[in-house]
Amino acid sequence: MKYRNFLGLFLFVCIFCFGFIINGNLSLYFNLSGVLIVFGGTFGAAFLSFKTEQLGIVLKVLRTNYKKKIKKETEIVQILIDLSIKSRIEGILSLQEEENETSILFLRRALGCLVDGYRSDQIRDILNTEIYFFKMRREDSERVLRTIADFFPAFGITGSVVGLISMLGGIGDTSIILKAVPIALTSTLYGIVSANFFMLPFAAFLRERTNQELLLQKIIMEGVIAIDSEMNPIILKTKLESFLTPSERQETLVSYKKLKERFNITA
């Protein structure tokens, strides 16, 4: 995550927690029975619903995506333009060096197809298949998170029902009622907060990250196919600019004039 994300998260978590603190006794918000009912029930249902391998994959995907920084669209476009120029000067086989060096797995896959001599239609078919199943895997992970998010409020209500039953069983005994009320109220609180402060934001983050990566993959696919067709780098630059916002086109990418001067290209 970016520094600004962490700063914003810290600030608003503090504000959120302050809302609890100003009401006085923090111990009122902690109830062991509610914690056990909500978290035990939710994760029990999760293990009943999904394979342990799938839950492990979701955890790994989240951890990796929060740690890993992906390249910007402008960086990918510039990489592809440089590859196009290198291919025109030194030949397509020279891109094998880039295939071995790049840390972008999808680009490595695309360059591998290019260097191995696959036709453009075959490259497009292979990469589209790669994109399709990448999207499916990410959607499965997101579905798991959203399902667990649905479990939390349900078991929060379960905890509330348990508390109400205890209250009914203790009618006439004030001490029993006072013990049961926190279970009923805090269980609902735990369920709502856990679903909306953790699971749903995790799922939303994963969807946003997936959309970003899918865009990069489409840029790479179009760029590699254009390189295979020996498209002029200037024309390729114009084509790939279609994926970028106007501000990114103006501020980040190398201008036509500089690109021509750098590589002695005639339009």
Automatic annotation (TrEMBL):
Q: The MotA/TolQ/ExbB proton channel domain covers which part of the protein? A: 106-214
- Location (main, coarse): membrane
Q: Where in the cell is it found?
A: Cell membrane; Membrane
Q: Which UniProt keywords apply?
A: Cell membrane, Membrane, Protein transport, Transmembrane, Transmembrane helix, Transport
Is Transcription regulation a UniProt keyword of this protein?
A: no
Superkingdom of the organism of origin: Bacteria
Q: How does it sit in the membrane?
A: Multi-pass membrane protein
What is stated as this protein's family in its record?
A: Belongs to the exbB/tolQ family.
Q: What is this protein called?
A: MotA/TolQ/ExbB proton channel family protein
Taxonomic lineage of the native organism: Bacteria, Pseudomonadati, Thermodesulfobacteriota, Desulfobulbia, Desulfobulbales
